[in-house]
Amino acid sequence: MHFEKRAVLTEKILSVKISKNIQWETLAKELQVPPLWLVSALLGEHSIPRSTAEQIGAKFGLSDDEIKLLQQVPYRGNMQMPPSDPTIYRFFEAISVYGGAIKEMIHEMFGDGIMSAINFSMDIAKKEHPEGSRVVVTMSGKFLPYEWKN
Known about the structure:
By secondary structure, this protein is of the alpha+beta class. The chain is built from 6 helices and 2 strands. Strands 1-2 form a two-stranded antiparallel ribbon.
């Protein structure tokens, strides 16, 4: 099955990353792609354009079939809910607590609609703080109004 093959490929990529001490940020710069997009893609959440998949294949020692698999449209969002990993769970928790407020603010500022997760970008940064380092996550999604069409 396609999903199972992709999961095996993800494990191979993670293994090679560790053995070759590949850093996501460095790899993203080499490939000239956003780091979070790259990591998400290599974890199986995005299809990768052919030229980038070929570069990744060379870097990770992938077969032609594995390079083709990177280019396939994935089955996205196949995650246990609620998530069991503590890092991922904290994002789930933050959205559970602040989701309603975020929704209210979006509607107050933009009207009736949603933030696109397709026309979307995300960045992560580290910010030093007297009480301990902070994780800064910035999400930017196109606003899509709900429209009634006749």
